[in-house]
Amino acid sequence: xxxxxxxxxxxxxxxxxxxxxxxxxxxxxxxxxxxxxxxxxxxxxxxxxxxxxxxxxxxxxxxxxxxxxxxxxxxxxxxxxxxxxxxxxxxxxxxxxxxxxxxxxxxxxxxxxxxxxxxxxxxxxxxxxxxxxxxxxxxxxxxxxxxxxxxxxxxxxxxxxxxxxxxxxxxxxxxxxxxxxxxxxxxxxxxxxxxxxxxxxxxxxxxxxxxxxxxxxxxxxxxxxxxxxxxxxxxxxxxxxxxxxxxxxxxxxxxxxxxxxxxxxxxxxxxxxxxxxxxxxxxxxxxxxxxxxxxxxxxxxxxxxxxxxxxxxxxxxxxxxxxxxxxxxxxxxxxxxxxxxxxxxxxxxxxxxxxxxxxxxxxxxxxxxxxxxxxxxxxxxxxxxxxxxxxxxxxxxxxxxxxxxxxxxxxxxxxxxxxxxxxxxxxxxxxxxxxxxxxxxxxxxxxxxxxxxxxxxxxxxxxxxxxxxxxxxxxxxxxxxxxxxxxxxxxxxxxxxxxxxx
Amino acid sequence: xxxxxxxxxxxxxxxxxxxxxxxxxxxxxxxxxxxxxxxxxxxxxxxxxxxxxxxxxxxxxxxxxxxxxxxxxxxxxxxxxxxxxxxxxxxxxxxxxxxxxxxxxxxxxxxxxxxxxxxxxxxxxxxxxxxxxxxxxxxxxxxxxxxxxxxxxxxxxxxxxxxxxxxxxxxxxxxxxxxxxxxxxxxxxxxxxxxxxxxxxxxxxxxxxxxxxxxxxxxxxxxxxxxxxxxxxxxxxxxxxxxxxxxxxxxxxxxx
Lengths: 502, 256
Description:
Chain A has helices at about 1-15, 55-65, 70-85, 125-130, 135-145, 160-165, 175-180, 185-190, 200-210, 450-455, 460-475, 475-480, 485-495; strands at about 20, 35, 45-50, 105-110, 145-150, 155-160, 170-175, 215, 225-230, 245-250, 255-260, 270, 275-280, 285-290, 305-315, 320-325, 330-335, 340, 345-355, 360-370, 375-385, 390-400, 405-415, 420-430, 435-445. Chain A is of the alpha/beta class and about 500 residues long.
């Protein structure tokens, strides 16, 4: 391991130089580029790129995926943007500086090389891991009718129901495959909502994204099932940079579920994802997330840094994009799923539950940009803080001059558990059209001892009582989630807040 | 069923109960009356195990066990029910869900099978009907937006579903109009039986016309100043609390 590190350091000093790694470890099969022949650590069942980031890293990832030139150029451009950008300091979160050269930018599970065609071909160990996470892939897929495009570290390893979806004309596949099979679609929409230069983390993601999901719903099609992707960061010291792109053509409907979880590690791990949604005339996209990345231990050691850019463009008339998120994990969350309401009469929604406990920090919210006429948006945010955590809502509602008749309703409620946590609200309103109606409501409450006692007196123990009260507080958001997710979200909340009262 | 001996309790260092002795047998109804600040609600809170009340001396046994040693939810599961003077709102939690959780927590504790959703709904409908409550209330959030009267009726409804051994009613009559008072009283009377006891805390004699007690106790300055049968309540109606309070103050001054 040490040797590779050294050689990579050398590579940074002399960019463009070709290196051949020592033969102590077998070179990976199927490596498209002969120019960049890096060794891989196969003895730990992972093909891992050693830590470090430079243009060669970007070229390597692109070559590994056999990408066309345009995509490599796109990545390199993003990388150059990134080099000139500074990490944002405005979020209300605190963490030691991240050493971007100490992160490994590519890790793929071994079995991915063989491209399993069905679940039977998937590494049983991998399936067992999903099992432990409570995602019995087969049963879940069959019983719930959910197509799961499971992403393990960086490469998609199992895709189900793809054929059934194909019958309906729906494309649902790893974005790396979509680049090969539907290059025109990917090229048309990739970066069209979140351009590589958008922000520091989006630029980083654009340069090094390894995989993610691509969804395309053709005109007039209602996707026959809920689409679901489970992300998981497994390897130590690897950042995960997935990229998701969903395009819903005229009159189409799709509901997409994203679940995230990561095992315990002492180190902090970086997760910088980008999600782009495009809705054309009368299209509807519902995007639901249950995020349960490892939050770190009770003393604030370890945990995921979750710096994510999610944005949807309602390009068509009467189109609708709805974000629902339940955020219980991560040491630090920096995330603002947003809607750009371009089409006249388009609608954006944001329903969020963010829970922080112990030393977790969350700065999350949304942006609703009203550009078209008669556009409307709804923001319902529920923040729950416990332990020593800090939970901030940050939201922008912007009404542009042409957005005649725009309407927004925002409601931000915070619940505090204990007296050592913090809840903060940063609403930004920019209204440039006099006909706009903008409403903002905010409340802060402490979880009531009298409420807990009332439930105790009916035979319900304190942990169940807390969970009941908190779930009630979050009800307006949970009812937006698909059924099986709502149940999972409620369980997650109870687990996250365990021991925070009484 | 319930035996309170020499119970002393304080709140924030302030002594409220100063030696309560009370025996409640199964099948009986005890009314506890007294002026404001005499300790009636403190007694209810201490029995139910509310936080912030410290028991300084004395003992309470409930069905042969040390009540004060139990957590509030265990007291409930053992069969103690408190109808709250101010029922608490729990936004977003439906009455149906809450009450089913309560029923099943208690059933689990007693080693009984949990009630399935369908069975519970049948039970709830059957119990809600005589109380004149709109069954639509089951779908509403617990006590949220309920009128004062609705909250009190709902407490009695919960009691009839949970079927406790001991029901403590903390000023359930306050804020009720006469019709609601009758309905609530009928609900309580319907639950009376040889295995069940009630402690009815009230400021006014009015309620006792409908829930006829076997015993009446008058609380003053943290003690039971006087006990008797239901005629004591009528005396109080006529003379007010003053004559009992004066007597009890004199007793306290004498240091007994």
